């Protein structure tokens, strides 16, 4: 079974980095991508994200459904933006270059397409980074790294448990789904889409019960071991930072500073190629 959101062991350069440096890079770079609408910076971040995904050597089979799912919602988001605000790009950039007259208010302009392209670049800039971080960072090593940079170990351990729990939820979902199919519930591709959606929705209730039971078991086990009694703790997975981690952090800070500088220099979050 493919655990499409969970740690995958590897020997790539990205796997060897500290979990904290990868998290800070993902966080700061994502903030920069969310803040700016400068196409040049977004394109650079998107290319960097795709390069990181390639360097991590993550198999396509393990992430394809995440990509399909995110692409579907990205397409729906772009469509909704156009349907509810077909002239929003014109309002932002202050010019109007008509490409197709359309029907009623639904014309196609260069400005609207440019704005939608920037929205699409935001997805490309952030989604690969999130996948690289989740699939190349061991939860225990990440928790130790968070504690190293000052995060309380109780919070760091909670994050570690969350990352560990995501693949387990998927495994439980697949087990329950196979059990339902063995009892006659057809969830194959031969069924209509709505029927499959209703069938998968029926799995959520037993999945929630299984999750609550597991949470209770983990909580009791931690209480029996007096977790959280001391103010500090040691970590088996503790990893010192190397020059590569500091380089990654510097690149993230540079990206964020560049985003703020471009907004200050242009007087706006938007890069306007039609501005004289």
Automatic annotation (TrEMBL):
- InterPro entries in the cross-refs: ABC/ECF_trnsptr_transmembrane
What membrane topology was assigned to this protein in its record? Multi-pass membrane protein
Q: What's one Pfam family the UniProt record gives for this protein?
A: CbiQ
Keyword flag Membrane: yes
Query: Membrane-spanning regions, if any?
Result: 12-35, 41-58, 65-85, 113-135, 246-264
The places in or outside the cell where this protein is found are: Membrane
GO CC terms, sorted: plasma membrane
Instruction: Tell me which positions the record assigns to the signal sequence.
Output: none
Organism domain of life: Bacteria
- Per UniProt, which keywords does this protein have? Membrane, Transmembrane, Transmembrane helix
Q: Report the protein name in the record.
A: Energy-coupling factor transporter transmembrane protein EcfT
**Provenance organism:** Streptococcus danieliae
């Amino acid at each position: 079974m493919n655990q499409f959101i969970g740690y995958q062991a590897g020997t790539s350069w990205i796997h060897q980095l500290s979990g904290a440096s990868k998290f800070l890079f993902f966080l700061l770079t994502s903030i920069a991508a969310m803040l700016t609408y400068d196409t040049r910076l977004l394109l650079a971040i998107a290319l960097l994200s795709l390069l990181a995904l390639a360097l991590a050597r993550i198999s396509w089979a393990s992430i394809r459904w995440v990509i399909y799912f995110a692409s579907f919602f990205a397409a729906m988001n772009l469509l909704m933006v156009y349907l509810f605000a077909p002239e929003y790009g014109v309002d932002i950039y202050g010019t109007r270059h008509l490409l197709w007259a359309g029907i009623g208010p639904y014309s196609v302009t260069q400005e609207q397409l440019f704005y939608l392209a920037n929205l699409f670049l935001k997805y490309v800039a952030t989604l690969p980074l999130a996948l690289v971080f989740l699939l190349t960072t061991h939860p225990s090593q990440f928790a130790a790294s968070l504690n190293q940079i000052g995060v309380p170990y109780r919070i760091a351990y909670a994050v570690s448990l969350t990352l560990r729990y995501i693949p387990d939820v998927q495994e439980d979902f697949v087990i329950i789904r196979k059990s339902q199919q063995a009892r006659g519930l057809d969830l194959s591709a031969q069924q209509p889409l709505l029927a499959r959606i209703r069938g998968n929705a029926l799995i959520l209730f037993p999945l929630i019960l299984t999750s609550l039971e597991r949470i209770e078991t983990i909580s009791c086990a931690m209480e029996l071991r007096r977790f959280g009694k001391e103010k500090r703790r040691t970590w088996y997975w503790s990893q010192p930072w190397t020059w590569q981690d500091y380089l990654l952090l510097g690149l993230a800070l540079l990206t964020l500073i560049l985003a703020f500088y471009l907004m200050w220099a242009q007087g706006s979050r938007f890069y306007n190629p039609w501005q004289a």
